[in-house]
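The freezer alarm interrupted the setup, so I double-checked each line after restarting. Inputs confirmed:
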Amino acid sequence: MTASPGGAASADVERARALCDLARFGDAAQLLQRVVAADPQNARAWCLLAQAHLGGHEESEALRASRTALSLAPDDEWPHRLHSIALGKLGRGEESIAAARSAARVAPHSWQAFVQLAQALLGDKSAHQEALAAAEQAVALAPHEAATHIVLGMAARACKRHEEADAAFRAALAIDPQNSVAHNELARLRLRRSKLAGATALADAAGGFTNAVRANPRADVSRRNLDLVVRVFLARVSYLIFLDAYLAGRGLAGSGSVAARLAPVVLLAVPARFAWRFVRRLSPDLRRHVRRVLLSRALLIPAVLQAAAIALLLAAVVVPRDARSFAAGAAAAAAAVARLYLFVYAQRRSRVRPGLRRFVSRVLRRRSAADANPGSEG
Amino acid sequence: MSDALLDSLRAAVEASPDDIPLRMHLAELLASLGMRDEAVRQAAAVLQRDSGNVSALRLIGAGSADAPPRQDDSAAETLRRLDQELDGLVPPMYVSSEAGPDDASLGEAYDPEPAVGLRLADVGGMEEVKARLEAGFLAPLRNPELVRLYGKSLQGGLLLYGPPGCGKTFIARALAGEMGARFLAVGLADVLDMYVGQSERNLRDLFDTARRSAPCVVFLDEVDALGQKRTHLRNNAARGTVNQLLSEMDGLEQNNEGVYVLGATNHPWDVDVALRRPGRFDRMVLVLPPDEPAREAILRYHLRDRPIAGVDLGKLVRLTDGYSGADLARVCETAAEQALLDSARSGNVRMIEMSDLEAAVRDVRPSIGAWLETARNVAQFANEDGAYDDLLAYLRKRRLV
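Predicted 3D structure, all chains:
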C-alpha cells in the first residue's frame, strides 16, 4: 500500500479510521475527501473512503473510491475486497465474485479475503459448495475470528448442512457472545428448522433475535425478524386451528356420537398446547413485545379471526346437530382467511412486484420461515 | 451570474455525478466567486472519478492558497447590495458569534473556561430534568455534611443522554455555572487527536489540568466516542483511551476532589459498561426533546432578532411537538430563508410571517426518529438493570412501545 506522503495527511487518515471505527461514516468520508484531494495517490485513504461510503450506504461512491484505490494499489488485497463488497451491494454478483477471487489470489493468507469470497459466492446459488470451501479456508486461517465462523455457518446453511451451520454460529458466539450477526443467523437457522408444531424452536428463535437486538440495538433486521416470528406463530396457530376444524367437521358429518361431538374441543388442545409452550418459553420482556405486536392494528385482524374460529369450534359442541358441520366449516374458513391475511401482509411488507406466476410459485414453494432477513455483515 | 444559474449547475451535477467537465465547470465557477470550500469539494469529487485530472489538482492547489475572493463579479455584487439593503431590517441569519442553546461552542481542550454566569434557570422548561439534576447531583454537592451523615459518596459522574440536538451541552454548561466551577470541555475532535497521538498521556494531562483548576467540571461530550465498548474497538489506541479514562475517573493515582465529570451522549448503549459502574458514570439523566415551555423559549430565542409579524407562538409550539432544539433552530432558519428569498425575488422587503413558519414546520421533520427506533429496542430488550426506565416511561407515554 502506498504510504501517505505527509504527516498531516497521515494523521487525518488515522482520524478517519477512528471515525470509521466509531461508525461516523459521514464525518470520515468528508475528512477523507479532503485527504485524497490533497494527495490523490494515497491508496490507503481511497480504501478508507470506500469503507466510509459503504458504511454510509453510498455504494456507488464506494465503488468509485475502491476503483481508484485498485488502480493505485492493484497488488493489495484491501482494494479488491472493498471493490467486491461495493459491487455486491450494487447487485453486480458476478463482478463481485471476480473481485473477491482477485483479493484471495493477491493475499492467499488473508482471512478477510476468504470471508468476502465466501459471501460473494453465497449470492450465486450454483456456487454454494465453493462458498463453503472458501469459508472453511477462512476459518482455517483465522479460527479466533467470529466473522469466519459466521460465514461458515451461512455457507453450511446454504448447503443444507444445518448441524454444521448451527455449530459454526455457536462457535462464533463462543468467541464473541455479543455478536449481533451470529445471534441473528443462529435464530434464523432455528426458525427455518422449526417444525409446524415446534413451539420450543420458534420461541428459541424469538429469543435469538432478541439477543441480536440486545447486542446491537441498531439491528433493525433482527427487530424485523422478531416481528416475523410473531407472524409465523400466528400462521402456525391458524394451520392448527384449520386442521382441527377440518377433522372436527369430518367427524361431525360422519357420526353423531359424543366423541365426535366433543372432538372440536379435544382437538383444540393441539393449538392451545402449541401457543402455551411458545409463550411460556419467552422471556417477560419478549412476552410483552409479542402481546403488543399481536394487538397492533396490522395483526389484530388475524388474531380476531382466530379467536372467532375457536369460538365457532366451541359453539359446534353445543349447537343443534344440523348446525355443527356449518360451525366447524366456518371455523376452518376463519382460520384459512387469517392465514391468507398473514400471507398477503408478508408479501406487502416485502414489496414483491405483482405477477401471477411469481405469486403462485411463492405460494407453492416458499415457507414463511424463509422470509427471515439475513444479518448485516460481520 | 445569478444564484439560479449556480443552483441549476448544482442540480445538473447532482443529476449527472459522473460528468467530469460539468462538475469541473461548476468548481471553477465557484472558485471564481470566492466559494472556495465548495469549489474544493467539487474538485475533490472530480479527483475521486479521475484521480489525474490536472484542472482539479490545479484548482485544489489554488484553493489552499489565500487568494482573495473576486468582488467584481455581478453575482457577488448583487448579493452584497441585497445584504446592504436588508441591513438593519433583517439581522444576519447565521451569526457564528451568537451560540444558540444547542450549539454552545466547546472550550479549548486543556484550557478550562472560568465559571460562567449560566444557570439551570436559564434553561427554558425541562423542569423534570432540572429537578433530577438538582436532587441527584447538585444537592449532594451543596450539602457534603449531610451526604457523609447518610453514608453516601460524592464520587461518581453524571451522564446526560438523549436524542441529538436536545440541549445536553447547554445543560452541562448550566450545571457548571450552578456549581461555580470551571468548565473543561472535551469534544470529538479532541478524542480523535488522542487517537492519533499519545492517547493515555493526553487524557492524563487533561485530568491533571482539571485537578489543578478544581473546582472544575470535566465535560466529555459524545462520550460514546471516548468510551466506546472495548469489544467494538479495533484500534489499540482507542482501547487504551478507555482504560485510561476508567483509571482517571477512579482517581487511582491522584485525588479527584473538586473534579466533577459530566458526560453527554446520544448513544449510552455504546458506552463501555465499565464506565457506568459505581464511582464512574453511575447516574444517568435523560434529556428529552424540549417540552412546551422549552420549545417556546427556544423559538423565542431563535426569533428574537428576526423581523417577525403575526406569529402565533402557541400554535407553533403545538405544531413542533417532538422537535429537538436543533430542529426548532432549523425551522426558524428555513422560515427566514423563505422570507429572504421572497424579498429578493420581489424587491419588497417583508417580515417573517406565520405562514413561513408553518411551511418550515412542514419542511423540517423531527430528526429524532432514527434515535427513537434504537432507543425503543434498548428500552424494550436491554433494560435488565432498569437503567433506561425513564426512557421506557417516555416511550410508553408516546405509545411507542
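Quick read of the result. Residues 325-346 of chain B form the longest helix (22 residues).
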